[in-house]
Amino acid sequence: MEFTKKDLNKTLRVKPGDMEKNRTRWRIDASGKVLGRLAVDIAKLLLGKHKAYYSDFWDAGDFVLVENIDKIKVTGKKLADNVMYAYSGYKGNLKQVTRDLLMKNNPSKLLTFVVRGMLSKNKLRDKRLKRFKMVTGTTTEFDHFKPTVLTKIK
Length: 154
Prior knowledge:
With 154 residues, the protein is of the alpha/beta class. It has helices at residues 16-21, 35-47, 78-81, 99-105, 107-118, 125-130, and strands spanning 25-29, 63-67, 83-87, 94-98, 132-135, 148-150.
């Protein structure tokens, strides 16, 4: 079932099975890309905002594979100044780490943290994050899905 912009004037009822069939797979090369701009585009693809039948309570997003996450750029002083916090709820158990340390040790955790913050805060957020894969370097593991290469990111 194909959806176009003409369908926006009608009440659209999309079955979950049709949404599953229409999920596309995207491959993004993150080398030299700015962290925030990259995360915005990833979040839009995971939410499905580029589709005609997007709604915040439907899980209509796509699969996203990001390669070369160790070569992401961060502008300004954000690497040294921004601190990420993790709090378990117990007294004295507030953990904090700078973006610089995360970028050196675990760039996938940093990108996940940023993209997770850009997704809508509802029950679907964890399901959407499961469709998000990151790879240091390049891979041919997902080539059998024939992913579409996304090139519009600055």
